[in-house]
Amino acid sequence: MPISTRRIAIASGSALAILLVGIFAVTQQRGNDPFAACRQSVIAGGAGAIGGAFTLVDEDGRTVTDRDVLTKPSLVYFGYTFCPDVCPADMGRNVAAIDVLDEMGYDVTPVFISVDPRRDTPEVLKEWTDYLHPRLIGLTGTPEQIRAAANAYKTYYKAPDNPSDDFYLVDHMTQTYLMLPNHGFVEFFSRETSPEALAESASCFVDAAG
Predict the structure, then answer these.
(1) DSSP labels, the chain
(2) Domain regions of the chain by residue span
(3) Which fold would CATH assign to domain 3-161+169-209?
(4) Among the listed ranges 26-40, 41-55, 117-131, 169-183, which one has the minimum average pLDDT value?
């Protein structure tokens, strides 16, 4: 793994721990939490602090909102297609979990939101997502649209302001968000979570949501 990419993975894990555990996670009112039996993370103030409305562009060039995309239980990941190894590995894990969930009888949608709109046009996204999984939804947009979505999900990314070539890397966090209709964000998964463990946890949340 290149040093810069390894730093991305390490920084992402550290930032995630600080953001979702150090800042938000102090106590949880589990008695009022319908997902208490499923939850592995602890987010004070409720899961509503993460996620929200977005307007982006899908891989077919259509402007869509969260209401158009997150119509089923969904696994949402922020990354970019030029990512040398972290994003392909994470998305490979996510779509493998989708296949496990399919076998378990759960219909869950994988979603990939690009943080690199300079290179990730709808056409580029379509080729990349279709290669990974037939149901994977790719989303891009203007820099402002992507920043708004990332801010809503409390995730970090940083691309070079004026890259000198087309081989630049984008620093970004690597968590995967489980989103449920009528509930929004309910859980996040680190990149160390296996497909089977992710699927087992996601199925618990889907069952608890009724």
Answers:
(1) --HHHHHHHHHHHHHHIIIIIIIS-S---GGG-TTTTT--S--TT-GGGS----EEEETTS-EEEHHHH-SS-EEEEEE-TT-SSHHHHHHHHHHHHHHHHHHHT---EEEEEES-TTT--HHHHHHHHHHH-TTPEEEE--HHHHHHHHHHTT--EE--SS-SSTT---EE---EEEEETTTEEEEEE-TTS-HHHHHHHHHHHHHHH-
(2) 3-161+169-209
(3) Glutaredoxin (3.40.30)
(4) 26-40
